[in-house]
Structure formats: C-alpha cells, structure tokens
Design goal:
Organism: Pedobacter heparinus (strain ATCC 13125 / DSM 2366 / CIP 104194 / JCM 7457 / NBRC 12017 / NCIMB 9290 / NRRL B-14731 / HIM 762-3)
Strand content: 15-25%
Largest sheet: 3 strands, antiparallel
Distance between the termini: 12 Å
Helix content: 40-55%
CATH topology: Arc Repressor Mutant, subunit A
Shape: elongated
CATH class: Mainly Alpha
Number of strands: 3
CATH architecture: Orthogonal Bundle
InterPro entries: WH-like_DNA-bd_sf, WH_DNA-bd_dom, WH_DNA-bd_sf
Order of helices and strands: HEHHEEH
Strand order of the largest sheet: 1-3-2
Protein name: Transcriptional regulator, MarR/EmrR family
Structural class: alpha+beta
Pfam families: HTH_34
Number of domains: 1
Length: about 100
C-alpha cells in the first residue's frame, strides 16, 4: 500500500500558508494589509508565514510607497504556482483514494 500523504508538500501544512496561497493563486498580487484583513491575522503571524513562503521561493515581494507609507505586495512565482497545484492534485488524489 502506498503512503497517501507522501506527495503532500509540508510547506502547505499550515492553514495560514494554505490560505495565503489560495488567495494569491486567483489574484495577480495582494498587499500585506489585504492578506491580513482577509485571513484575520496579526502582523507578526502573517509576516512569519509569508517569510516561509518567500524562502521557499513560492512568493515574490514588491515594496513601494504610497505617499510616505510603505506598500508591500506579494505575487506567486511560477515555482509557487506549480508547487501549490501539485499539492492540490495530491490532496485530491488522496481523498479519492480513501
């Protein structure tokens, strides 16, 4: 019998990272504040998870200014898009196999 969780990506084990990826896969880019409000997270908690996704090279970060305030936006990389699709395919395959 094959291990049903073998193909799942550990980076997406967190519900927060799964939520971030779900938002970014259907939007070209999303700001830090939009992600924070949508997922109802604190600054520190969101930043920590975004950092994990960025280190895995699943996200691109773009910093700019709106007036005197910084505006940080996030976009999926092709690697991130592919990794997330592979994870979702593995989840679907696992569920159908049960």
């Amino acid at each position: 019998m094959k291990n049903p969780i073998e193909a799942l990506n550990k980076i997406f084990d967190s519900r927060i990272r799964l939520g971030v990826m779900s938002v970014l896969v259907v939007n070209d880019s999303v700001s830090f504040n939009e992600l924070k409000q949508l997922l109802e997270l604190t600054d520190g908690n969101l930043a920590s998870h975004l950092n994990t996704l960025e280190q895995a090279q699943y996200l691109k970060v773009q910093k700019s200014f709106i007036g005197k305030k910084t505006n940080t936006t996030y976009m999926l990389t092709e690697l991130g898009r592919h990794a997330f699709k592979t994870h979702l395919d593995a989840l679907e395959k696992m569920i159908k196999g049960i």
